[in-house]
Amino acid sequence: MAKKEINIFFDTFAPVFKLSFMLRSHTCGELTLDKLNTEVTLCGWVQRSRDLGGMTFIDLRDRYGITQLVFNMEDDSELCSRARELGREFVIQVRGRVVERSNKNPKLPTGDIEIKATALEVLNTSKVPPFIIEDETDGGEDLRAKYRYLDLRRNVIRKNLLTRHRLAAETRKYLDKQHFVEVETPVLIKSTPEGARDFVVPSRMNPGEFYALPQSPQTFKQLLMVSGMDRYYQIVKCFRDEDLRADRQPEFTQIDCEMSFVSREDILETFEGLIAHLFREIWGKEIGPMPLLPYSEAMRKYGNDKPDTRFGMTFVELKGPTAEKDLTAGKGFRIFDEAGLVAGICVEGAAGYTRKQLDELTAWVKRPQIGASGMVYARYNTDGTIKSSVDKFYDENDLKQWAAAFGAREGDLLLILAGEPSKTRKALSELRLEMGNRQGLRPMDTFQALWVVDFPLLEWDEESARWHAMHHPFTSPVPEDLPLLDSDPGRVRANAYDMVINGNEVGGGSIRIHNKELQQKMFKVLGFSPEEAQAQFGFLMDAFEFGAPPHGGIAFGFDRLCAIFSGLDSIRDVIAFPKNNSGRDVMIDSPSVISAEQLHELGISISSKS
Ligand code: ASP
């Protein structure tokens, strides 16, 4: 049992296979007692060496694991002396015999044996590595990024790449079975004004003109549907030149999919199937049916369109659009009286929170990132009394009414925020997640997935004073809301869906518009002139005139999925060569300036760095 647990740090996905190469007979992860007395040849890196007088022990590491080598002075003093000379990370080839270890290591699958060495070849030397290449390392983030290839030798990092590989392989297996065809779409495309900022690439052959790198293959996959491909997918790099917020990468990977002649339900079923397949194959877990949660309900109950539904603490309004009646009015508490929304959460069994803890929590919600102006709490004590931070205004009777509205029981704690509704919901959502963390309700190995549906099609942008597509401009409206597109665009719901797992939006997509007139109308609502729409997306609208089938699709954020399956918060460690928070690759030192000659050739006359 213990062996199995430890084994996840190595490559458990590669079953022991027969090597057909000349340099080694076995890997460093496979030899056990059943191979006693076998003559073997191993290759790998010197992880550690210990010199115990007459004996030298070396841990030899490769992708598959670690095997202990033993060199004995009495058996062969010349060989043993050479072994003593080996430095960390030297690459060696060793021949020897599998023998039983007297001092077994139950933490390693190979821990019952060691190799009594009879020959040693140094295949390459190594400088002393800048940090320790073990699960616990002394290397800081910058140093490890600079020497990423060494960091990737560490099992804890490498196993993430192996998980990533398994996820990609299983995704392909599943989609292939469902008759999806993997089609590559171009990487040098055309810049469009919608969405995030594009990365652009100057065209030497067309001076003054630029390609753009795709933010997603959206229009191409739709064109593939027009071409009759029926089911498309691609595990594809996408590029967005956004200001780098924490845990964003300028290039990232999507599992991008599109299907023809399908309803929303067909798509949800197909991709629920994909995710269930991945959970089964990678984690050996079943992930239950995914409920549909309308966007409006998600916002009302969780203040968030990607709620973590592993735990309750749903919002209760004491005053607000869904409150049965205002339970706060008439008591002279100005903050509640002036608020558009007074809402809170009930934290089960947390009435024991001390004054100090509650003050600290109040300071936490008042931080600018959360933005609440304060927090009211009420402890429903186990002796049946209720004490709040607003006792001056609300008596025990009032508080009992609050407790009833929350469905609170003795021992519970109510945390209440108030203010402008959307800001308050946002802050309460953060508080809910924080309390989920503090109460241990968000374990890494428990998963709950759902679909959020019925998003608004459009959102109003104050700055540009125009409607923006909440998803993208190719998303079709829910059919019965079509008439509202002219009269009340803000109320039109999109035929779109997001898959959410544990509070992460892992994928999103929509049923598309497949008709030129409706697409033109959509661009008009979004503030495009007919000429602008034609210049940017004429190719797509023209294609719709040649028998475009009804179609829809979805894209999953592959890096995020990998992080979830690896039990990590950050996507950085599931990417082989990630960029840092400033969008730099510090290993290859990119981006970098280019020569005046190169600039000249590209017809670019600005100085590249000021
Ligand atoms: N292309 C969309 C995106 O990248 C996903 C989709 O609608 O399929 O968000």
List keywords for this structure.
610 residues, 3 domains, globular, binds aspartic acid, OB fold (Dihydrolipoamide Acetyltransferase, E2P), 5-stranded mixed barrel, Gyrase A, domain 2, BirA Bifunctional Protein, domain 2, alpha+beta, single chain, 28% helix
Structure description:
The protein has about 600 residues and is α+β, with helices and mostly antiparallel strands. The protein folds into three domains: about 5-125, Nucleic acid-binding proteins (OB fold (Dihydrolipoamide Acetyltransferase, E2P)), CATH 2.40.50.140; about 160-290 and about 450-575, 2-Layer Sandwich (BirA Bifunctional Protein, domain 2); about 310-440, GAD-like domain (Gyrase A, domain 2, 2-Layer Sandwich). It contains 17 helices and 22 strands. Helix 5 (about 155-175) crosses helix 16 and helix 14 runs antiparallel to helix 15. The radius of gyration is 30 Å and the shape is globular. The site of aspartic acid (ASP) has 8 residues, from strand 21 and strand 22.
